[in-house]
Amino acid sequence: MNKPTTISFHVPPKMWSEFQESMLKSRMFNEEVIGFFFCQRHQVSKRKIRYIPKTWVVPSPDCYEHQSATGLVLTQPFHSFLLENYLRVGLDVVHIHTHAGRGMPDFSYIDDRYESEYAQFISSGFPQKPRLISGVFDEDFQSCQFRMWDRKGRKFEKVQFCNSLFEVATNENDMNNPDLMFARQKIFGEANQRLLNELKVALIGCGGIGSIFAELLGRLGVKNWVLVDPDRLETLNLNRMPGATQEMVEQRWHKVHYVKHLIKRIYSEGSCVKTIPTSIESELARQEIATCDLIVVATDNHFSRKMAQEIALEYMRPLVCLGTHIDMKQDHTPRMYCRVSVPPMGGGWCLMCGNIISLQRAAFESAPAEIHQMVGSVGYIEGVNDPAVFWLNSICASTGVGVIHGMVSGFLNVDSGIDWVYEFPGSDWRKTNTEYLRSDDCFFCC
Q1: What is the DSSP secondary-structure string of 340-377?
Q2: Comparing C-alpha atoms, which of 357, 362, 352, 364 is closest to residue 443?
Q3: Which of 147, 351, 370, 443 has the most CB within a 10 Å radius?
Q4: Is residue 309 a contact partner of residue 318, using CB atoms and an 8 Å limit?
Q5: Which has the closest alpha carbon to 118: 157, 100, 92, 89?
Q6: What are the Cα distances from residue 297, in Å, to 173, 289, 401?
């Protein structure tokens, strides 16, 4: 018997909060209200579909022909506006309305009839054949149901609604049998621990920062990984990669297999680690990264960061970028930095428009070998890798893990994104005002 397809409607928390507030403001008493999300369909896997909103609309009171506690009707001009501006560009529609009362609401007979006709209408009236997802909430927006109609409007499937950064399944057995390994993390809540245990993380770059990061996040409870890195272990890596040995170097271990070894030392069973010993450019890497709940890039080049950011933007996945830098001042004293950046998922700024990635350097790094030699000879890029030390990488990696823990637990607000820079020997954390990272004309995120 085939497993059923899992369909989820995923809304970033900032977008959901704004939508919910706008819905509540659009009624005077306890009238029903309606709002719309226009979504991109993302086929995560053969049996998993995710709907990601690109924009939302809540009609103002003058957009209703009729509005009461028992029903509502939109004006024809407003409805035509929605069709022309959103459905014709190939987006699917999620329409959400409220019912009076508190507790789990049910779809009414009128809902069934209207939605069945509407699902058939939009799929036959537009070349892209958009799908209709409908949701009903109680008047306080505390309880809800969602469903997706087929294109003929004859039957529907259940849709999971998720209004957090992360979307994971709930395993009833895990709820009843908490893992003693994490007993001293109970202060953060059992639901938070289950979320960490189910979280699927893509790690791009399994070197000095990435390996420490994987060890730390793994011990926090993350068991599901996709590891991407084309490189093999070398002797010069041994000073900053925990548990790496000369024997691994001599056996020419790929870094992804070394990091998998670190995770499997923590979890002899119950973990799932996919290793992809290629660059992020490969189609296999891209497909696997797109299935993850969170993308972390810990590489030492701009091109891979650019690719990771583009994937995160396309599939609306949270992205965490980790990096360090060391240079020497004229008096031969070192300046050391680490940087942790999390662009906002709902848009506003990305690593490119925030100048966290140099597109010029990314272009050089993706160029053929002969171009590298040419630009190197005229001083555009250096031929020696940046210096690195274990303890600075550890500060960066552990801060990144702390940020993710805060994102999962809800005690760190990243709606506007964060960009933190640590400087040593001053031992200062500088927190960028992300308003200055915003760009209205960024080609990538606007």
Answers
A1: EEE--TTSS--TTTTTSS-HHHHHHHTS-HHHHHHHHH
A2: 352
A3: 351
A4: no
A5: 92
A6: 33, 11, 13
At 117, which amino acid appears?
Answer: E
| Per-residue 3-state assignment (H helix, E strand, C coil) for 253-292 | CEHHHHHHHHHHHHCCCCCEEEEECCCCCCHHHHHHHHCC
- Give me 148's structure tokens: 């997706």
Q: Are 371 and 364 in contact (CB under 8 A)?
A: yes
Tokens (6 digits) for 100: 């009076």
In sequence order, the 6+-apart residues with CB closer than 8 A to the CB of 264 are 271, 273
CA distance 344 to 412: 13
- 398 pLDDT more than 90: yes
Helix%, strand%, coil% for the chain, nearest 5? 35, 25, 40
Q: Which helix (H) or strand (E) holds 175?
A: helix 172-176
For 122-247, strand residue ranges (E) read 132-137, 144-149, 156-158, 160-162, 200-204, 224-228
- List Cβ neighbours of 255 (8 Å cut-off, separation of 6 or more): 206, 207, 210, 211, 229, 231, 232, 233, 237, 277
What's the pLDDT tens digit per position in 52-85?
888 899 998 888 888 887 778 889 999 899 888 8
Nearest to 407, CA basis, from 297, 320, 312:
320
Q: How many residues are given for the chain?
A: 446
Q: What is the pLDDT at residue 304?
A: 93
Mean pLDDT of the chain: 86
Tokens of 4: 């059923």
The edge-to-edge listing of strands for the beta sheet with 319-328 is 272-276, 224-228, 200-204, 294-297, 319-328, 334-342, 418-424, 428-431
pLDDT over 60 at 1, yes or no: no
Q: Are 226 and 276 in contact (CB under 8 A)?
A: yes
- Phi, psi for 38 (deg, rounded to 5): -110, 120
Picking from 432, 434, 275, 267, the residue whose alpha carbon sits closest to that of residue 349 is 434
d(CA 373, CA 379) in angstroms, rounded, equals: 10
Beta-carbon-side half-sphere exposure of residue 317 (alpha carbons within 13 Å): 29
Q: Pick the closest to residue 311 from 298, 322, 323, 295 (CA basis).
A: 295
Q: What is the CA 27 to chain-centroid distance, rounded?
A: 33
Distance CA 328, CA 326 (A): 7
Other beta carbons less than 10 A from residue 310's beta carbon: 17
